[in-house]
From TrEMBL:
Transmembrane regions listed in the UniProt entry: none
Protein's recorded name: UDP-glycosyl transferase/glycogen phosphorylase
Keyword terms, alphabetized: Transferase
Species of the source: Thermacetogenium phaeum (strain ATCC BAA-254 / DSM 26808 / PB)
Annotated ranges, domain Spore protein YkvP/CgeB glycosyl transferase-like: 237-379
GO MF annotation: an example: transferase activity
SUPFAM superfamilies: UDP-Glycosyltransferase/glycogen phosphorylase
Amino acid sequence: MRTAIENQDIICLSTVDWDPIWTRKQQIISRLPLSNRILYVEPPISLLSPFKNKACWKKWPLWWKGLRQWRENIYLYSPPVIAPFGNIYRQVNRLNQAWLAPFIRRAARRLNFREPLLWTYLPNSADIVGRLGEKLVIYDCVDEHSAYSGFRPETVWDMEKSLLEKADIVFTTAEGLYEKRKPFCREIHLIPNAADVDHFQKSVLETTPLAPELKGLPHPVIGFVGVIQDWIDLDLIADLAAARPGWSFVLVGPAGPGVDLKRLHSLPNVHLLGRRNKEVLPSYFKGFDICLNAFRLNRLTATVSPLKFYEYLASGKPVVSVPLPAVEPFADVVEIARTPAEFLKKIEQALTLETPERRKLRLKRAQENSWEQRVAEIMEKIAPKL
């Protein structure tokens, strides 16, 4: 029986641009066999997006550039702008998807695509299914999209249910996502997130240099790596930093639009370094004593499979995390805390109890959760349908 995806044309509708921040989408797509040809469609911006986030202005003219080749078999495409409020009013989304479809078809025709696989991460793509000449629809559900701020939950869930019913196969990253969507699917599988293990394990190598910004910082160094979005518990981090002024708190990653960093900026032992290329991240992990997995506990994070958690494991560093359902199965290798007082206690405990054996155990668990393993599992489920 076929267990790999070979010689296929694939249209991937993603929720994130290809660069600069890599997520599950890029990790999976980039690991598919080279015999496949992939059109990676970046998310369109709305007419209002640049007024909410100035960084979106640079995306405004991108669609005029057409296809951009990233690798011999992967092409990137940024579609034209769309009308706002598509995640609030279903009819607006229908118009948006009808508008986008011919542009995406044209890009696929330029690559001579024939009967592509439609691999989507967007609930609103329910209204583009059937318009791209696809022979198979794959939906990879990575978040509770209806819980996003600024979206109308009823509209987003209505679109997602429609997509679930149309999809030939569905994947989810967390148990909560799986259970909610299972009644609406023909076939569904739970495939959690993972890490680029080989890359992040470089942090344990003697040949990996220490990031220059970390040299001379007082220890312990408590580190966070990732995009700082509104679901990251910045109050928790600020409380910890205020309670332990002799510790260094280092946050590596860009802040999302609207995220308030004023309190963190006011604390002298908090170091906000901004975005760093993924290639150099092991140099930052190398200087951490503890990795902090600090999410707000809400409806969105209850169903999240945090990428950064798996990357923390792969770095070999001790991890202290909030009690996310996706993290609790790793309680044998990480510390779990709920309140600032518990976090302080668990951090001190992790520092005191750290041994080479505990690090080896974390690295072993990370190896069991690599992207190579996840992609093999996903292909094994899809291949028999081709």
